[in-house]
């Protein structure tokens, strides 16, 4: 999500579990997506097109995957696996706003995200791909009548063929609660703008999309990004957003295994706390054993001020 996810977000008094149909002034049955509803500044970054309620906290979302994009499409023309994360993120935010009446100025706090794709099913190059997401919301909690947290489980379909599955848990914070939580954060001017790794090493279109800077140590990089890159930063202005941490995990795995190509089929990430613009955040990656024949697994940890701020695992074929 575009607000750096936090584990263990405290729920205010009055938060209760809720079942049944979405309620609230914006509890429509269907609608179209806009860039405001998915927290995107550019129309070219918007993935959902429309959504519809199927009842009982179940929805379908129609999305269009682009055939060209500097982040979401790999240099070889295939959808980049990180596109799955952005699809999950945008669809969950869209439904929270449009179906559950969450105001546009509220903040989303992710605890974890994950996806799993069957090998080969992301190979849908050759033009824009229209896909459908089956979304189930569960373990819903409310603060009075307002949505406070939910699990989202998503199946991505190309026709009747399952492309991938995924999901995550997110909490929702009011602007007032968010200000209390964050206090006086550091400004974006302190974001790390160290010289990036060569973009081809992490399978990106150019230096502007690289979020890692080299260090003298093997398997260790400094997090870096330009806050003016709205595709990666979204609305975040007081911390590195979760999307950049997702990118950092994927790029670290590729940099570690370079020159072998790495295309993860499964990914999990857990966010432990906000990643501030200073001091530097260090990204560390190493391979780990896997029981899957021919597969390669990489574990990535982000550290800031000596503490782990996120942990991620990626598994796929290295060739």
UniProtKB/TrEMBL annotation:
<dbReference type="InterPro" id="IPR005509">
    <property type="entry name" value="AfsA_hotdog_dom"/>
</dbReference>
<feature type="region of interest" description="Disordered">
    <location>
        <begin position="1"/>
        <end position="29"/>
    </location>
</feature>
<protein>
    <submittedName>
        <fullName>Gamma-butyrolactone biosynthesis protein ScbA</fullName>
    </submittedName>
</protein>
<dbReference type="InterPro" id="IPR047757">
    <property type="entry name" value="AfsA-like"/>
</dbReference>
<feature type="domain" description="A-factor biosynthesis hotdog">
    <location>
        <begin position="203"/>
        <end position="315"/>
    </location>
</feature>
<dbReference type="Pfam" id="PF03756">
    <property type="entry name" value="AfsA"/>
</dbReference>
<feature type="domain" description="A-factor biosynthesis hotdog">
    <location>
        <begin position="37"/>
        <end position="166"/>
    </location>
</feature>
């Amino acid at each position: 999500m575009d607000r750096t996810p936090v584990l263990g977000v405290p729920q205010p008094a009055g938060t209760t579990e809720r079942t049944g149909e979405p309620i609230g002034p914006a509890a429509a049955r269907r609608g179209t997506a806009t860039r405001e509803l998915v927290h995107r500044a550019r129309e070219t970054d918007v993935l959902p097109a429309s959504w519809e309620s199927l009842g009982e906290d179940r929805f379908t979302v129609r999305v269009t995957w682009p055939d060209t994009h500097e982040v979401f499409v790999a240099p070889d023309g295939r959808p980049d696996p990180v596109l799955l994360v952005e699809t999950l993120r945008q669809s969950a935010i869209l439904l929270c706003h449009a179906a559950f009446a969450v105001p546009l100025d509220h903040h989303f706090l992710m605890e974890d995200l994950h996806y799993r794709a069957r090998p080969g099913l992301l190979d849908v190059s050759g033009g824009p791909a229209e896909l459908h997401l089956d979304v189930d919301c569960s373990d819903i909690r409310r603060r009075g009548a307002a949505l406070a947290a939910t699990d989202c489980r998503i199946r991505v379909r190309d026709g009747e063929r399952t492309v991938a599955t995924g999901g995550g848990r997110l909490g929702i914070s009011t602007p007032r609660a968010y200000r209390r939580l964050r206090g006086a954060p550091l400004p974006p001017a302190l974001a790390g703008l160290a010289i990036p790794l060569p973009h081809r090493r992490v399978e990106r279109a150019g230096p502007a999309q690289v979020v890692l800077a080299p260090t003298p140590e093997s398997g260790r990089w400094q997090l870096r990004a330009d806050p003016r890159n709205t595709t990666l930063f979204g609305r975040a202005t007081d911390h590195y957003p979760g999307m950049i941490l997702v990118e950092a995990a994927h790029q670290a795995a590729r940099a570690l295994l370079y020159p072998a190509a790495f295309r993860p089929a499964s990914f999990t990430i857990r966010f432990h706390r906000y990643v501030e613009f200073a001091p530097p955040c260090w990204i560390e990656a190493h391979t780990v054993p896997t029981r899957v024949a021919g597969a390669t697994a990489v574990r990535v940890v982000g550290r800031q001020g000596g503490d782990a701020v996120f942990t991620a695992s990626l598994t796929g074929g290295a060739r």
